[in-house]
Amino acid sequence: MKPFIRRSGVFFASISALALTIATGCAPSKSAPTPENFSKAINAYFLDHHECLLSNIRFPYETTDKTETRQLDSLVKSLLLNKNEEPAIHSSRYTVAPAGQRYAPRFCYGNREVTSIDSSTPLSVVNGFKQSTVTYHYTITEVPVWAKTPEVLAAFPQMAQAINDSNTAKITLDQTTTSWQVPD
């Protein structure tokens, strides 16, 4: 009876090792060019690269441009900015309101989140890294309430389209030994 117990113990250990090898060895690596790996890399990148309304404005900000005035006035109506007018020179001066401190100066309104990977180019070597250009669909997540107000949506039509539709974009990804990343 003892030889059978030893053999069944060895048999059980062998089966367990084989199952573990199959479970870990057959799973695609995190650096394989798969839609799942591309999605993870793109989503990770956009967690630190938000979608924003204003990129080159510092407050206080003064303008006479009618389009800028209309856009910034929508943020005044949302209580994110304060406005002082200079009627003699047709100028408006904007400062950040207390409610806008969290979003100023760029007024970011959300993050891209991949909904599907549509295609990718074959791997090519660029600057010593294997790269692929990935075409993907995304939606904007974590959109604050102020960005959904009718005034802000009307003043920033590109943002309105981005938060209400599924969008398509392309991005280049570098393959590393452990994953994919957006090159800087």
From TrEMBL:
PROSITE patterns named among the record's database cross-references: PROKAR_LIPOPROTEIN
Query: Its domain of life?
Result: Bacteria
* Keyword Signal in record: yes
The keyword Signal is annotated on this UniProt entry: yes
Where does the secretion signal sit in this chain?
1-19
Keyword annotations: Signal
Q: What is this protein called?
A: DUF4136 domain-containing protein
Origin species, per record, is Edaphobacter acidisoli
Provide the organism lineage as a comma list: Bacteria, Pseudomonadati, Acidobacteriota, Terriglobia, Terriglobales
